[in-house]
Design a protein that fits this description.
It contains ten helices and no strands. The chain is mostly helical.
Length: 228
């Protein structure tokens, strides 16, 4: 643990902090973090693109709405490692970053779909009737009134999905996708606590930074009246 702390905080004593080793570690850390953010970011973007329309449809209830929520809920209950293992044998997947991105995308759907549907369903009937009275079309009501009113709930779902993806992406290293799971898995195999911390500490910090970023985004984008 001491050696890992020295690597992160730049202690001046010990062979670990020689320029060569420190530079090598920084390069590796940059590579791990970059790949980790790629996996989590691409999968989150896909989850937003697909999840928002599905949430809008699910908010209308009925058989289709319940089927959407049920399907995304079932996916969420599958253990992340099992989901990766199920995707690997399928055509066009295998041992690759593509498989990890698809698994993270599927995992990130439920919070976005559920929060979008909940946010839209919570809009009161008088507000809906007022929007109709203004003569707005269904599409205009959705874009100009309903989605802005549900924006905080939607953003909370995106935040939950992002944090889940940051944590789950550590398992991507098991199928050769890289990321911060590389040192964690290597450290577990070697029973090397320092190597484990080389991946665990940045992964935990990334999750906290994502949480802070979305909290800040909530304050900037969401009107104060909707935050009450």
């Amino acid at each position: 643990y001491t050696a890992a702390a020295q690597q992160y905080f730049g202690a001046t004593d010990g062979v670990i902090t020689t320029p060569f080793v420190s530079e090598t570690f920084r390069n590796k850390l940059l590579r791990w973090v970059t790949r980790h953010l790629e996996l989590a970011g691409i999968s989150l973007l896909l989850a937003i693109i697909v999840g928002l329309p599905l949430g809008i449809v699910a908010s209308r209830g009925g058989t289709v709405g319940h089927a959407i929520l049920g399907a995304t809920g079932i996916i969420q209950t599958i253990p992340s490692l099992a989901l990766l293992a199920l995707l690997v044998p399928l055509p066009f997947f295998g041992i690759s970053a593509r498989t990890a991105i698809v698994a993270l995308f599927l995992y990130g759907l439920l919070p976005i779909v559920r929060n979008t549907a909940t946010g839209l369903q919570d809009i009161s009937r008088p507000l809906r009737e007022s929007a109709i009275a203004l003569g707005l079309t269904a599409g205009q009501r959705l874009r100009k009134i309903f989605l802005p009113l549900a924006s905080r709930s939607i953003l909370a779902g995106i935040k939950t999905s992002a944090v889940i993806n940051i944590g789950t992406a550590t398992l991507a290293a098991l199928i050769g996708a890289g990321g911060l799971g590389e040192p964690i898995i290597s450290g577990l195999n070697l029973n090397d606590h320092v190597t484990i911390l080389e991946g665990a500490i940045p992964a935990a910090l990334l999750a906290l930074l994502v949480q802070f970023f979305f909290d800040l985004l909530d304050r900037v984008l969401i009107p104060r009246g909707l935050r009450l």
